[in-house]
Design goal:
Layout: H1 13-26, E1 52-53, E2 58-59, H2 68-81, H3 89-94
Antiparallel strand pairs: 1-2
Length: 104
């Protein structure tokens, strides 16, 4: 299951990353193999404060637009924040938004 959440956070992106990793750990996630199976994966996709580029965190997520399972929920959150009803997936496909890099 994939979902996106928008939240207001007063700390830094790295502070939020630490919180996400703490939650994953409390839920039993163990980081054994990079890109391996996991029971819970909390990713930060976007930071409204701009770009973060460090060894431990890159924002926007560098693979975001190649992963429809990630950007579709993000798009739904963005549209609802703008007061717009999210179009159904067929309309997204007709518009070509589900293929290739997406620029908002």
């Amino acid at each position: 299951m994939n979902a996106a959440l928008r939240l207001h956070f007063t700390g830094s992106p790295l502070d939020l990353l630490q919180i996400c990793q703490h939650v994953e750990g409390r839920c039993g996630r163990q980081r054994r193999l990079r890109y391996g199976d996991r029971t819970l994966d909390l990713d930060m996709l976007w930071w409204s404060g701009g770009v973060q580029d460090s060894q431990s965190l890159k924002l926007p997520h560098p693979e975001l637009w190649r992963r429809p399972f990630a950007w579709r929920p993000l798009l739904e959150v963005a549209l609802s924040d703008w007061g717009l009803k999210c179009p159904d997936i067929e309309r997204l496909r007709e518009a070509g938004i589900d293929r290739g890099p997406l620029a908002i």
